[in-house]
Known about the structure:
single chain, TATA-Binding Protein, 22% helix, globular
Amino acid sequence: xxxxxxxxxxxxxxxxxxxxxxxxxxxxxxxxxxxxxxxxxxxxxxxxxxxxxxxxxxxxxxxxxxxxxxxxxxxxxxxxxxxxxxxxxxxxxxxxxxxxxxxxxxxxxxx
Length: 111
């Protein structure tokens, strides 16, 4: 399996795993949105927590030029570490939610 196919599989599985988690309160559904053609991978939620509407992505990852870009991580988990544990090279992970001037100090790719 080539690198891009392997990264797509790793990211899709990660997003599916997070989307399978049910929030501890409220009537909220989570589900994966996986676009392997455009290389966009999201875990989203929709529902109600008492009288407050909950809707939107809580995890957004893209694959751009064979690198994994963590665009948004609304979880309390270290997604980049999970990707490394799954076999992704640190130099192929971009913490896109960090400002560009901070990225060189993260130990991951800048872009």
